[in-house]
């Protein structure tokens, strides 16, 4: 898939037409094996292409600058569907050229992103604006994703306050933490690329203003900061959950303590009169059993009234 920019308009061309428009700004999207076959035409070293072919969905892959070109791997995630597999693209940027190769993708998502970026422009398009649109599409859905997770955290807080904690909440918090970690690393990766383009953009795009990247970088930084805030909110949520579990455990222990305290005097009474000494007058007394029963009931009632007065029941 090849696009060229001519007189501020973008149009799709085929490989045979590339020679005709090779002096124009070009956006190229094709697999690395096809890119290597046309490496002489596109002036890209096959060795550089091979370096970017290794599948690695970590977010710490650094971009390199070599022979007037910025290249490297970029891990891509869908902020709204973090459960889906990550994508990976190889990105090659040189003067008047953008080359994008899918290394790992699901359902042609990378191609769809590029097509959405191209559809943004009817006229007055430049290669810099096109790259801005592609990067902006790559971080689209970030605010909505964070907002959805914040709403989910608020719902969890209400559940904890209402003491309706489910057994799966601990697992839900863990998976949410994992999602936020993915987003945080993703935005840090995008910020690194944006800073690199801001610094070297003039070498790639000539006199065109690289200030386009400033608001994009700020947007990435805001998303990264908001993701960090959400992670900290998740920590407080986990602490609230632990406090709730500890409170419920303490309530259970309090009930056991009260029951044990009530039955301790009864244990003393039964132990006392279970010694069966021959000179214990209550054993021969006609009302001895009734007296012990009444004493036990009185002790239980006295303990219950004491705990109620102390607000332990």
Structure commentary:
This protein has 313 residues and is an alpha+beta fold. Among the domains are: 1-138, Beta Polymerase, domain 2 (2-Layer Sandwich); 254-309, Methane Monooxygenase Hydroxylase, Chain G, domain 1. 60% of the residues lie in helices and 13% in strands. The chain has helices at 18-21, 32-37, 39-42, 46-51, 109-119, 127-138, 142-161, 169-205, 213-273, 281-284, 288-309, and strands spanning 2-6, 9-13, 26-29, 64-66, 69-76, 87-94, 97-104. Strands 2-1-3-7-6-5-4 form a seven-stranded mixed sheet. The model has no long low-confidence stretch (mean pLDDT 81).
Overall strand count = 7
Structural class comes to: alpha+beta
Biggest sheet strand order reads 2-1-3-7-6-5-4
The end-to-end distance, rounded to whole angstroms, is: 75 Å
Low-confidence stretches at least 5 residues in length (pLDDT < 50)?
Answer: none
Please count the helical segments. 11
Order of helices and strands: EEHEHHHEEEEHHHHHHH
Under CATH, the homologous superfamily of the domain at 1-138 reads CorA soluble domain-like
Helix content: 55-70%
What is the strand content? 5-15%
* Average residue pLDDT: 81
CATH hierarchy class name of the domain at 1-138: Alpha Beta
Just name the CATH architecture of the domain at 1-138: 2-Layer Sandwich
């Amino acid at each position: 898939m090849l696009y060229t920019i001519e007189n501020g308009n973008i149009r799709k061309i085929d490989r045979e037409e590339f020679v005709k428009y090779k002096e124009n700004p070009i956006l190229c999207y094709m697999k690395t094996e096809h890119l290597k076959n046309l490496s002489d035409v596109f002036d890209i070293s096959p060795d550089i292409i091979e370096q970017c072919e290794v599948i690695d969905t970590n977010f710490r892959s650094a971009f390199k600058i070599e022979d007037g070109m910025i290249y490297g791997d970029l891990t891509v995630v869908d902020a709204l569907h973090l459960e889906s597999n990550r994508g990976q693209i190889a990105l090659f940027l040189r003067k008047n050229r953008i080359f994008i190769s899918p290394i790992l993708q699901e359902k042609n998502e990378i191609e769809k992103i590029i097509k959405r970026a191209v559809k943004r422009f009817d006229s007055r398009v430049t290669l810099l604006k096109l790259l801005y649109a592609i990067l902006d599409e790559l971080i689209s859905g970030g605010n909505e994703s964070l907002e959805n997770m914040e709403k989910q955290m608020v719902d969890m807080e209400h559940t904890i306050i209402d003491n309706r904690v489910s057994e799966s909440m601990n697992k839900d918090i863990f998976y949410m933490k994992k999602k936020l970690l993915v987003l945080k690393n993703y935005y840090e990766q995008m910020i690194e690329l944006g800073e690199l383009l801001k610094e070297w953009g003039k070498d790639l795009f000539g006199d065109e203003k690289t200030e386009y990247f400033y608001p994009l970088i700020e947007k990435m930084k805001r998303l990264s900061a908001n993701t960090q805030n959400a992670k900290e909110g998740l920590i407080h949520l986990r602490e609230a959950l632990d406090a709730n579990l500890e409170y419920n455990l303490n309530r259970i222990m309090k009930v056991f303590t009260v029951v044990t305290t009530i039955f301790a005097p009864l244990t003393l009474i039964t132990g006392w009169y279970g010694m069966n000494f021959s000179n214990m007058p209550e054993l021969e007394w006609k009302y001895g059993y009734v007296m012990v029963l009444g004493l036990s009931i009185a002790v239980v009632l006295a303990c219950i009234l004491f705990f109620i007065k102390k607000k332990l029941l």
